[in-house]
Design brief:
Blueprint (H helix, E strand, L loop, with lengths): L1 E5 L4 H12 L3 E6 L10 E5 L5 H11 L3 E4 L10 H21 L3 E7 L8 E3 L10 H19 L3 E7 L1 E3 L8 H10 L12 E2 L1 E3 H14 L5 E4 L5 E2 H12 L20 E3 L2 H6 L8 H17 L1
Helix pairs in contact: 1-6, 2-3, 3-4, 5-7, 5-9, 7-9
Length: about 300
């Protein structure tokens, strides 16, 4: 399949691209200044979402059957100006793709769109975007779907939960824990009792690949592990690797009752419609992530 990909050099995007390469898809990647070598099945167009007119003819000539839009510039800056700029870029992209004849687009959102929920979160639950980033994402979903419909293009929205794994930014939770313990420091974590749905990045890449092949127009799909994991458990797994004889003891007291964050993805929809579910346990995923950062720090 011929697929145009934005955000393919990012943490999640690079794993998605590798998965699509392995499956033999013909890809066109939107790439900024980064220089990277790819197999012959991968084409590169230089540019970013702020200058679509400079490269849209190259995309038109490529004639993609589907686009996977993962780019969101400025992360981890989630302020209003950055969020609104990304919203504008996303809508311009969808309109441009419709004009050049692309028939399908997958756009990535976030579990943060659901707001401060607890328990199992399904796609049809009422969402509560409450900050510039989630408001922009939700507006992109609503307006983007209408723009796609006007241009006879199928539109699919996916919501990532807490993706982790090789290549994640060092300031993120799990890399922070690993990198702290690599140098002999005990990690400072303010919310060890919170529980989130941590999903390994290679499982996420497989989900995107499966949605590319079997996703349905107009649908929203959660991508998560389907269960919550206490942050304290992740720290204990890293302790087991580096300090097997020492027990992790949190320095903060455990909150009472519903003060603890605890939510996870209902993945029944993606499991039933797409035939996907995460395969990597938290134990296996953390160990793989440790191995990656150990190798990266040696080089």
């Amino acid at each position: 399949m011929k697929a145009f990909v934005t955000g393919g050099t990012g943490f999640i995007g690079s794993h998605v691209v590798n998965k699509l390469i392995d499956e033999g898809h013909n890809l066109l990647l939107l790439e900024g200044e980064a220089e990277k070598s790819y197999p012959q099945t991968v084409n590169v167009v230089k540019g970013d979402l702020s200058n679509i007119n400079k490269w849209k003819e190259e995309v038109r000539n490529f004639n993609p059957e589907i686009t996977i839009h993962m780019a969101w510039e400025g992360i981890p800056n989630y302020d209003e100006q950055t969020s609104n700029r990304n919203l504008e870029y996303g809508l311009d992209l969808i309109k441009t793709l419709g004009e050049i004849g692309c028939k399908r687009i997958i756009v990535t959102g976030s579990c943060w769109e659901y707001g401060e929920k607890t328990g199992e979160i399904s796609e049809d639950i009422e969402i509560n975007p409450s900050n510039p980033f989630t408001i922009a994402k939700n507006t992109l979903r609503e307006k983007g779907r209408e723009v796609a419909k006007e241009n006879n293009m199928e539109f699919i929205w996916v919501r990532f939960f807490y993706v982790y794994g090789p290549g994640q930014k060092s300031h993120s939770l799990i890399p922070h824990i690993i990198n702290s313990m690599q140098v002999g420091n005990k990690p400072e974590v303010k919310t060890p009792y919170s529980k989130n749905d941590f999903v390994y990045v290679e499982d996420v890449a497989e989900a995107i690949s499966d949605i590319l092949n079997r996703g349905k127009d107009g649908e929203i799909y959660n991508i998560g592990s389907g269960y919550s994991t206490e942050i304290k458990k992740i720290i204990e797994l890293v302790y087991k690797h580096y300090m097997p004889d020492e027990k992790y003891i949190p320095t903060v007291e455990k909150p009472m009752g519903n003060e603890i964050v605890d939510f996870w993805a209902d993945i029944s929809k993606i499991k039933n419609e797409i035939k996907w579910e995460a395969k990597t346990s938290i134990e296996e995923g953390v160990e793989k992530t440790i191995s990656y950062f150990e190798e990266a720090n040696r080089n």
